[in-house]
Amino acid sequence: MTGTLERGGFRGALSGGSDHPHYKWVALSNTTLGMLIATINSSIVLISLPAIFNGIHLDPLSPGNVSYLLWMLMGYMLVSAVLVVTLGRLGDMYGRVRIYNAGFALFTVTSIALSLDPFDGGGGALWLIGWRVLQAVGGAMLMANSAAILTDAFPAAQRGMALGVNIVAGIAGSFIGLVLGGLLAEWNWRAIFWVNVPIGIIGTVWAYRSLHDTGLRRPGRIDWWGNLTFAAGLTALLAGITYGIQPYGGHTQGWTNPWVLAGLFGGAAVLGLFAWIETRVKDPMFPLGLFRIRAFASGNIAGLLASIARGGLQFMLIIWLQGIWLPLHGYRYEETPLWAGIYLLPLTVGFLAAGPVAGHLSDKYGPRLFAAGGLLVMALSFGGLLILPTDFSYWAFAALVFLNGLGGGLFAAPNTSLVMSSVPAHLRGAASGMRATFQNAGMVLSIGVFFSLMVAGLSTSLPSTLDGGLTAQGVPATAAHTIAGLPPVGTLFAAFLGYNPIASLLGPHLLGQLPAANAATLTGREFFPHLVSGPFHDGLVIVFWLAIGMSVVGALASLVRGGRRPDAAEEPAAG
């Protein structure tokens, strides 16, 4: 077997006009590893933020440090969303494998730099944010070209299966990272970056030795104005949404902040300019004509809505487990990131169980019904979570998140196959990047959308609940009113990071004036979760109803039928 996979063997086979019979499996294995490492890296930081901030001696709940927290969380996804189309287009022009291989190498080098952070405090946070941005460039190179490499390597009859393995591994990686991050952060926060290094080295060497371009390559010019306006517009828009969840001028959220408004409206205007430019240039980075292919347009709409719903679910479940359920069931706050990841394993199992099977079956019976059915299963699970009590029975919770994962697995591969098989072969890199842009932008949007809805839900009931709970434990009315009037986003971030904020809100002086029993109750494991569980559920109702609506609309979009453009005919890939 080893001899058949050597570089010379592949070159000889390719020069003869047909791919080596094993090449497609090498491509599948390596691109799946690339997708896995790129998506694990996103969520491994998400779950490890408390350990990271403790490691660099920075209080993430301090008002001045909230921006560090947001950019640590958002920077990777934002840069990935901005660059995947450009890097997919460059893959079409200069070789998908060439861009993909460079991405693996860059990802590995930046993982080493991240693990060697020499600074504390704000300097340490800026080091991590800067290198995470560069790491996102490498991750975007991997994500933008992996689906295109597989589409080139596999024949149409096996493409859904191959994309199913690849895409589901990528999506499952975002949940595997939750468990892995919890385990490694318990040992050493730097280990969450060390784990990428050996995998990255192996994957990089393997990719450079084994992968070769088998698809069409079309020379062209780099669309500099398109790239600049797309990057500027999308960055401004998504950054505006991100900062909109922060308090401003006495308001619980920042949607009246002039900088947020400038980001939202200015970003939308620049994206409008980008669309105009793309209709005027010879070699656009974003071939807008692809949206005339109904299967491509509807598949990307469904993918965007599914990504927003999935991202919102991920964040809400982490808050629910770390901030409420686990402390109520006796877990120390320091342990909650690890156990939140463990208790979310049914979600990952559901993805892994359904994804490859759905890809295989969609090759035989068509992708539309599987994609639509998967989103309807997700909507059903959101409805079940909607009626679940805040202090739930774990087995009911596990069944519902497994069902959600199952629905996501049923949707992912057929949707990707539907999108990628609908486009001309020479534009598969750009199409792959466009698909990844919608997916990554959906994750960023989910934070802004769902956090905003959750804050809106908390704003109606949390202040009075917090006021009453504090005064019942002997906190002076003036202090209780002041604390209750603080923006609820701080409470939400505390729950998201597995913190009990009551001690820091009251301060040692005020706690020292209270009876010892009251002080112990206020700072214990159960007071804060009991206090916020009711208001949290109010916000959760709003969030899950929106997720249900998005899933249903996405299912309808998945059923849209439409012929491909004449130049989109399949070029048969080698079997």
Describe the structure.
- With 575 residues, the protein is mainly α.
- It is 77% helix and 0% strand.
- It has 21 helices and no strands.
- The radius of gyration is 24 Å and the shape is globular.
- The N terminus and C terminus are likely disordered.
Write the layout of secondary structure elements.
Elements: H1 7-15, H2 23-55, H3 66-94, H4 96-115, H5 121-153, H6 156-187, H7 191-194, H8 196-210, H9 224-243, H10 258-278, H11 294-328, H12 336-343, H13 345-365, H14 368-387, H15 394-420, H16 428-472, H17 477-484, H18 488-497, H19 502-513, H20 516-523, H21 527-558
Helix content: over 70%
Category by helix and strand content: mainly alpha
* Number of discrete helical segments: 21
Q: Any idea what the shape is? A: globular
> What radius of gyration results from the CA coordinates?
24 Å
Strand content: under 5%
Average pLDDT taken over every residue: 82
Say how many strands there are: 0
Report how far apart the termini are.
18 Å
| N-to-C order of helices and strands | HHHHHHHHHHHHHHHHHHHHH
| Stretches with pLDDT under 50, minimum 5 residues | 1-18, 564-575
* Largest pleated sheet: none
Domain Major facilitator superfamily (MFS) profile: 27-502
InterPro entries: MFS (IPR011701), MFS_dom (IPR020846), MFS_trans_sf (IPR036259)
Protein name: MFS transporter
Membrane topology: Multi-pass membrane protein
Summarize the structure.
The protein is mainly α and about 575 residues long. About 75% of the residues lie in helices and about 0% in strands. The longest helix has about 45 residues, at about 430-470.
